[in-house]
Amino acid sequence: MEGIPIPRTVEEVFNDFKGRRAGLIKALTVDVEKFYQQCDPEKENLCLYGFPNETWEVNLPVEEVPPELPEPALGINFARDGMQEKDWLSLVAVHSDSWLLSVAFYFGARFGFGKNERKRLFQMINDVPTVFEVVTGAVKQVKDQAASQNNSSKSKSSGRMQSRQSDSEHKGFKISAPKDEEESGEEEDDDEQGAICGACGESYGADEFWICCDVCERWFHGKCVKITPAKAEHIKQYKCPTCSNKRARV
């Protein structure tokens, strides 16, 4: 249907799942303004599709019956103006998670995955945050609650942005704590290492540049929101694409 190889092994199905998931997350976070505009309630029943190459598309459902692949939730555009935007996006995210699972296990059934293969596929899928968790920040909230018990508020003060680090350390926001500040360094590491990128949903990596939104307090890869370490040096208060778009529509 999409002119791409059909996945046949557990690893191939999981890679297909990850690509589609990344596309859906992009639509609901980084590209949320574009997605919002395309979901016009005046149009016919629309679906949100994610593709293995990490792209997304809002389109009408396929006409063939039965479809080649399970179809996403139908008519996501009709509820857009009837509820709060964050609630609508959360609803679309939940249905997107359901669709991703149905596509993955459709491939599993089609190519005769046995009990052990299905279990392995589910475990691989279960190890990454859901679209809903990324879009709503649920994963980060759970991490924050655990970190708050260790008084991690210090990492959310003036050092929120990775621009604190020296020019020679611009690869990532994680800063090695001096020996005499080992305790405070551990507290900060807990908060950082528990972070999930609000755009792509991937976990924290020590060799990557990250930045935190001062409004929703979600972390993002610099490359996902097109912010470089040099650019971060001049930002007093950073707002992620989602928060910036919300403010523009108010």
TrEMBL record:
<dbReference type="Pfam" id="PF00628">
    <property type="entry name" value="PHD"/>
</dbReference>
<dbReference type="InterPro" id="IPR044104">
    <property type="entry name" value="PHD_AL_plant"/>
</dbReference>
<keyword id="KW-0805">Transcription regulation</keyword>
<dbReference type="GO" id="GO:0006355">
    <property type="term" value="P:regulation of DNA-templated transcription"/>
</dbReference>
<keyword id="KW-0804">Transcription</keyword>
<feature type="compositionally biased region" description="Low complexity">
    <location>
        <begin position="145"/>
        <end position="165"/>
    </location>
</feature>
<protein>
    <recommendedName>
        <fullName>PHD finger protein ALFIN-LIKE</fullName>
    </recommendedName>
</protein>
<dbReference type="GO" id="GO:0006325">
    <property type="term" value="P:chromatin organization"/>
</dbReference>
<feature type="compositionally biased region" description="Acidic residues">
    <location>
        <begin position="180"/>
        <end position="192"/>
    </location>
</feature>
<dbReference type="InterPro" id="IPR001965">
    <property type="entry name" value="Znf_PHD"/>
</dbReference>
<dbReference type="GO" id="GO:0008270">
    <property type="term" value="F:zinc ion binding"/>
</dbReference>
<dbReference type="GO" id="GO:0003712">
    <property type="term" value="F:transcription coregulator activity"/>
</dbReference>
<keyword id="KW-0479">Metal-binding</keyword>
<dbReference type="InterPro" id="IPR011011">
    <property type="entry name" value="Znf_FYVE_PHD"/>
</dbReference>
<dbReference type="GO" id="GO:0042393">
    <property type="term" value="F:histone binding"/>
</dbReference>
<dbReference type="InterPro" id="IPR019787">
    <property type="entry name" value="Znf_PHD-finger"/>
</dbReference>
<comment type="subunit">
    <text>Interacts with H3K4me3 and to a lesser extent with H3K4me2.</text>
</comment>
<dbReference type="InterPro" id="IPR045104">
    <property type="entry name" value="Alfin"/>
</dbReference>
<keyword id="KW-0862">Zinc</keyword>
<keyword id="KW-0156">Chromatin regulator</keyword>
<dbReference type="InterPro" id="IPR013083">
    <property type="entry name" value="Znf_RING/FYVE/PHD"/>
</dbReference>
<feature type="region of interest" description="Disordered">
    <location>
        <begin position="143"/>
        <end position="192"/>
    </location>
</feature>
<dbReference type="GO" id="GO:0000976">
    <property type="term" value="F:transcription cis-regulatory region binding"/>
</dbReference>
<comment type="function">
    <text>Histone-binding component that specifically recognizes H3 tails trimethylated on 'Lys-4' (H3K4me3), which mark transcription start sites of virtually all active genes.</text>
</comment>
<dbReference type="Pfam" id="PF12165">
    <property type="entry name" value="Alfin"/>
</dbReference>
<keyword id="KW-0539">Nucleus</keyword>
<dbReference type="InterPro" id="IPR021998">
    <property type="entry name" value="Alfin_N"/>
</dbReference>
<comment type="similarity">
    <text>Belongs to the Alfin family.</text>
</comment>
<dbReference type="GO" id="GO:0005634">
    <property type="term" value="C:nucleus"/>
</dbReference>
<keyword id="KW-0863">Zinc-finger</keyword>
<dbReference type="InterPro" id="IPR019786">
    <property type="entry name" value="Zinc_finger_PHD-type_CS"/>
</dbReference>
<feature type="domain" description="PHD-type">
    <location>
        <begin position="194"/>
        <end position="246"/>
    </location>
</feature>
